[in-house]
Amino acid sequence: MGVRIALLGEVTAHVRGQRVELGPAKQRCVLAALAVDLNRAVSADRLAERVWGADQPRRARATLSSYVSRLRQLTAEVRVERRAGGYALVADEDVVDLHRFRRLCARAAGGGDERTAAVLSEALELWRGEPLGGLEGDWASAERDRLRQERLRAECELTDALLRLGRGEGLVAELSARAAEHPLDERVAAQYMLALYRGGRAADALEHYRRVHARLVAELGVEPGAALRELHRRVLAGDPALSGVARASAAVPRGLPAPPAPFVGRRDELDRLDAALDQAGGTVVISAIAGAGGIGKTWLALHWAHRHLDRFPDGQLFADLRGFSPDGAPLATEAVLRGFLDALGADRARVPVDPHARAALFRSLVADKRVLIVLDNAADTAQVADLLPGGASCTVLVTSRNRLTGLIAGHSAHHLPLDVLTDAEARALLADRLGADRVAAEPAAVAELIGLCGGFPLALGIVAAHAVAGLPLAELVADLRESGLGALDDDDPAASLPAVFSWSYRALTADQARLFALLGAAPGPDIGLPAAASLAGLPSARTRALLRGLEQASLVARDGAGRYRMHDLIRRFAADRAAGHDVDAALRRLADFYLRTAHAGNLLLHPYVTPIDLDPPEPGSRPQPLADDAAALAWFDAEHANLLATVDAAAAGGRHRVVWQLAWAMNTYHFRRGNRHDQWALWRAGLAAAQRLGDPAAQLLAHRMLGRASADVDRPEEAMRHLYQALALAEETGARADQAHTHHALTWSWVQADDHERALEHAMRALEIHRTLGNPAWQADTLNAVGWCAAQLGRHDFAREHCRAALTLQRAHGDREGEADTLDSLGFIDHRTGAHEDAVRHFAAAVDLYRAVDNTYQAVNTLDRLAESLLALGRTDEARTTWQEAESLYRSQQRAQEADAVRQRLATLDHESDAPST
Asked: Where exactly are the transmembrane stretches of this chain (predicted)?
C-alpha cells in the first residue's frame, strides 16, 4: 500500500514512504473529518461544522471547496468524491490507521487468547501519541476523547487476554501507569489488582482497592461494582484460583446475522443511532426502530450493529421475536431468554424454571458488560421488557412494526421511525445490484420500477435478484404493471408487495413452487433440511437443491446453523399459495418426522423407558438418525419450538394421537433441560388428546405423567388426583407394569407430603410387582425407594439392605442416575447411624454422578446433606463451602425455603466461629 493516512497521533499522510505536506491546520482537519468516515459521504454542512464549529466564516463553503480541491491532488490511490451534497474520502480501509486499528480489534474478538493478544498488540502499535494531533476545535476534541476510549478498550482487552494466559506479573508497571491515568475505571483497577496479586503483592492489591473505593465514594458517591468487590473478597481470602492461569473466560456471544449487502441510504437514521450511543454516557441505549413490514428495519439495525462491533467487545445477542409471524405466535420471552443464557455460557442445569428468575439471571450475566442486544420484530413492549439488561453498559436495538409507546415512555427508548427509501436511494440500491451501466441504459424502466416497488428495500431486492438473471428491466416493469401491486392485508398501507412475490413465485419451477407453498404451511419458526425433506416427501439432496433455488430467489434465508427461515410477509404469501398443494399429506409427513425422531431421541436419553407403539410411518417421511444422547439433546434443542408448534397444529387438526405421543417423546428432554412448565403444559394437552381418542392406555399414561409434571411445578393436589386416577385405570385394566410405575410415582408424592408410612406402602407394592416383571432397572429404582422411605422411619438396617441391592443392579446395567439416587440414600443412612466418613464418601460420589448427567436439582439436595456430614466430622470450612454452593443452587432453582434454611445454617456457623473460646 503506497499511501498511509495517520489519525492515531499527529495527522499526517505518507505516499510511498515520503511525508506529504497537508497544508494549514484547517485543511488537515478536512482530511481528518473525511477520513474518520472513510468511504461514507459527509455533508458539506457537517464537514464545515467539524472544521470551524458553530462560528463559521462567511465564505466557509468556498474555502471548504478549495481545501477539498487541494486534497484531491494527494494521490490517485485516495480520492475525494462529490456525493449528494457532500464529500467522501474513498480508499482502502488499510490506508487510514484508525480503520485498520478497528478492523484488527474486530478480528481479535472471539479468538483464542494467544491470537487475541497478538492481533490486539498489532492494533495498538498503530498508535503514535494523542489522536488527531495538531488539530483544535470542538469536533477534534470530542473525537479525540472518543478515540482515547477506543484505545483504552483495546488495551483492557489485551490485558484480559494476557492475564488469562498467566502473564500478570509482567503487567504491573504498565497497569500502574494506566490506573493512575484512569483512577475511577473499575476494569483497570481489577486488572491492576490481579497483576499485583500474581506478583506476590497481595497487600498492595488490597491497598489499591481501598484507594479506589475511597475515591469512588468521595467523587461519585457510589460503591465499587459487584465484579471489583468480588475480586477484593477473593484476594482477601487468598483464593488459589487467582494465582495461576485463569479458567476459560465466559462465553462471548457472536449472534449477529451477516450484515446486509448492499446497504444504501439511511444516513440520517444511522446518524441518530450514532448520536444515541454517543450521548448515552455509559447508560443503556434503547433505540426502537419502527416501520412497516419490509421497510428495512432489520437491514438498518444489522448494518449499524456491524459498524460498531468494536464498541461491544463482550459480544452481541440477536433474536427474531416473530411479533408478526403469519401463524400469529410471537416467540415467547422465556424461549428467547433460554437462548440468550445458552449463548452467554450459563450452566443449563442451573437455569431456573421461573420466568422472572430467568430474566434476573440474564441481567446478572450482562451486568457491567458491553453487550449489544438486537431484538428484531417485537410484537409489543411486554415481549421486550424482560429482555432488557439491568446494568448501565449494554445497548439495545429493538425493531417493530408498532411504535412501542410503552418502551419509549417506560424505558426512555429513542424512537426512530423508518420510512420508505427515497427514489435516489432506491436507484442506488438497484445500481449496486445490477451495475450502474445497466440502470443508466433503461432510465424510464428504472423510474417506473422504483415507483411500483414503493421504495421498499425487500421488494427492490427481490426484483433485482430476478433482473440479475438477465430479464430486461422493461419486461420486469411490464409484468409488474400487468399484475398490479395490490394492498397488503395487514397493517402496512404504504406499499404493495404481493405482485413482487407473485412474480417471484411464478418464476419458480413446479417443484420449487410446491416446496415454497408447503414451507409457508409448516408449523414453527424455522425448518432444518431433514424436516424439509420429509415435508416435501423428497430425498435430502433434491430438497437441498430446491431450497438453494428459493434462497437465491430471496424467498428463504439460511442462518449460520443451516436452518431455513422466511420473512414474515413472504411466509404469509407462501401460506396463501398452499391451498393448491397436498398440504394435509405434507403436514402428516412432517409430524411423523418429528414424532419418530423425537421417539428415538427419548430412548437414547432414557434407555429404560418402555417405548410406545407408533402408527405405521407416513410414506415419504424420513426420520433423522441420532448417534447418541448428545446428538439427541442437540436435536431437541434445535427443534424444540417446532415440536411445540407441531403439537399445537396436531391438536387443531384433530391428530390427537400425535399430540400425546409427542408429549411422551419430549418428556425426558424437558426433565433434563428443566423445562418443567413446558412439560406440564404438554401433558395437559396430551391428556386432553388421549381423552378425545377414548384410548384407556393413553389416558392412563397421560394421567401418570401429568401427575408427575404437576408435582414438578408445585401443584400437589393436582398431582395426587391424576396419580390416583392413573392407578385406578391400571387396576381396572390389569396393567401390572403401569400399576408398579404409578405406585412408584405415588411413593415420591407421599414423601413430599412427609407421610413416610404411606410412601413406604406404595414403594413396597411397586417392588412386589416389579419383582414379577423381570426388569432390573425398574426393580433397582423401587429397591432404592423402599430403602429411602425405611430410612426416614428409622429402619436403617432394612433400608441399607435394600439400597445395597439396588446399587448392585444399577451398576450392573450402567444406570448412572439411578446409582446416584441410591448412593444419596446410602449416605443418608450412614449419617443417621453416625458413620459420617462413609456418608461423606457416598454423598460425594452421588454428587459427581448427578453432575455427570446434568441433574443439579438432585445434586443440590445431596450437597446439603454432604455439608451436614462434613460438619459432624469437624470439617467446618468444607461444610461452609459446600453449603455456600448449595445455597447458590437453591436460589437459582427458585427453592427459597431450602435456600433460607441453608442461609441460617451458615449464619449459625459464622456466629459459632466468632464466639470467644472458653
From this structure: none
